[in-house]
Structure formats: C-alpha cells, structure tokens
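Per reviewer request, we include the raw input and output of the structure prediction for the construct analysed in the revised manuscript.
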Amino acid sequence: MAFTQAVKMHLGNVCGRSWMSSYQRGSTVMSQRQRDYGAVLCGKCQNSSQKLSPNSRTMHATQPLMITKLLSVDEIFARRSLQDYFKKMETEYRDSLTVVNMTEGQQDGEEELRVKRTRVSVLAPLIQYTRELQTKQQEFAETETLLKDDDPDMRELAVLEREACQKAIQDVRQKILSLLIPEEESDMSDLVLEVTAGVGGQEAMLFTAEVFDMYQSFAAHQGWGFDILEYMKSEIGGLRHASASVSGPKSYKRMKFEAGVHRVQRVPKTEKQGRIHTSTMTVAVLPQPTEITFTINAKDLRIETKRASGAGGQHVNTTDSAVRIVHLPTGVVSECQQERSQLKNKEKAMKVLRAKLYSMRLEEETSKRYTARKVQIGTKGRSEKIRTYNFPQDRITDHRIGKTVHDVREFLVGEELLEEMNVALEEFSNQEILMDILGEND
C-alpha cells in the first residue's frame, strides 16, 4: 500500500490515562466513579443539549510511523477505492431517492422514509459535485482532441480551454474532499491550553516556559485572544505549570495537534560540564465548550477559597482570593489564583473545569467508535513523545508524521515554522480520515 499508516490519531483510550495525566498530574489511575461518570457523559448526559460530532478526532502516536508521503489530490482521485466509494454513494443516493418518491404521502414506513430523506439530503451535495466532476473531465478530454487540430487558432483556443478545465477540476475535487472530511463540532471551539514540566527538573521547567511563550506568540500571530489562567513559576524563572484560555476562529482546530509530550535535547544553563540533557514537558489542549453544548450542575461542585501562594505582595498573604473547584462525581479539580478578585478567579477556574469535563466526554465518545481500528490509539502517556527539539543539531522533528524542520530558535518564536508544522499535521490527519473512509487502513 502506497500510504502506510500516515498518521496515528489520539481518539480515545482516555479513561485510564489521557485526561487524567493532564487534569490530575501525578496520578495515573482513574477511580471507578470517574469511569462511571465518563459513561454517563457519553451520549447519555442529561445536561447536554446536543450530541458530539461523529467525526471528532485528534492526532497522537505511540511510536514513529512508516510514512511514505502525503498524497496529492491527483493521486487521491486516481485511487480505485475512491472511485468505488463514489459508485457506492451514487447507488445509495438513487435507491434512497426512489424510496422517498414512492412513499411520499403514505402512512406506512414513516421511520424508513425519515431515514431515506436524511440520506438523500446528506448525499445530495456529494453526488452533485461528483457529477460536476465527471462533466468537467469530459470537457477536458474534448479539449485534448482539439489540440491535434490542424488549425493553429483552434489549438491555441484549446490550450486556454484545457487550462480552465484543469482549474475547474481541481476546484471541484477540493469541494469533494471537504465534504468527505467535514469539520467536527469541536474544531470551531475555543480552547484551554495547559503546559506542565515533566522529566528534567529545572531544565524541564525552563523549557516549559519557552514552549508556553511560543504558544502565546502563536496566538498573537493568528490574531487570537490569550488569557493566562494559571502560572506557577519555578525558582530560577522556569515554569512548573500554566494554563491559558485561547479564543479565536478555529483556534482549537489549529492547536489540537500540539497535545502530547514534547522533548528537548540541549546543554542546560545549569550544566557546567557541557553535557547534553534530555528533558520533557506535557501539553494538553482542551476544547472549550459553550453553555449551550455543555453544562454542569451546581450541586456537583465543591468550591473552596484560600489565600494565594507564591510571589505577589501583601495582597497574596492577606486575602482569600484563590479558588479551588472540585467536581464531585469525577474528582476533577480546577484551581485559579491569578486574579486579585475571588469572583474572577472563580470564573477562570470554572472555565478550566468545563473544558476538562467536556474533553473527557468528547474523548470517551470517540474512543467507543474507534476501538476496532487497527491504527492504535495513543494515550498522551509520558513515554509518548510527539516532538523533539534538538538544539545541537538545530532541528525539530515531529515523530507522528516524520517531518523535520530546522532552526529551533525561529520555531520557538511561534510563527511561520510552527504554522507550517501544524498545517502538515492537519493534512496527514485528513488523509488518515479519508483512508479510513475508503477502507484502506484495514
């Protein structure tokens, strides 16, 4: 197969490790009540007014992948499996349309009629574009014959027509791919970003601070809002843990592939003998739900206040402004002490809590749909490094897609190079989804 496991996506296996590693750092075991609540949230939550998208996905790999290449649009449309898929959808569309036309106005078979109507409305745009594509391809074939005409004016006209047909064909193909790989509900969400220092002591904390700054710069580069919710410094200027609310068009869609373990290899500032150290830090990217899509019962919360800790002056030591919220059914905890106002800290802590619980529900739902996948699901475990920042060799390698870029310092600026990496990850993820649809990952 030309395309061999292009991307491994993190879509579940969450209950034991994934969301716990981000939300209750230091703990690797989920309690029974958390597993039970996850099952309740999965399609049965009475507090949610709508279900999750059936296409929810993120990318996460447990090991380097055997990548051949990213397929071009021409290569994708040349695959027999895609053409077979179009024929199958065309047949289903015609059959569904026949049932709808035959049973209109009849009382019998109302449930079947409803199902067939839904399929007709879903398949109609795809069928329209595939038929349009066939028409454009026929026009292109006709211009090819005109290129052999004896009349030079006719040949010149045929060249122009061929170029127009080629462009039209590519445009229609892109529209078809966008229908085959639709955006998921959470892609349109804002997000909560969490970074946590891992293995490596003070060096890991210094690297965590750099990565957090990189994402803040990336948000500014994209024109997104970046509101720091929590920021726990280390003794020498590093970062133990921090979280931020990121808001902007498709911010979650662009940032979701950053979730996982990031590894740095370099000579630390604290190293006196010039030895290269390896340190890690963990990134969690949580879609931020709206009040409409996700609500939490007040009776399920225990809200505690306390005095903030750390540097901050006289106010920190004299006012109970820090807020800690515990979600009783799951034990998930959210804290905030960034603001002087207890009310503002409570609002920020609730934002993080909602994102954690929503992500738990989202990943639990998707894990059920993908348990049969041969492409194994990642877990965001500490051993699952997704990217390495190698300073001596001045390279950044993303292990999920085998992509390497150079200039670590420029990458950490959080602009063009980080955007290039994210675009590549999204393209491979879309290709993986398409291969699943066509049954080529079985």
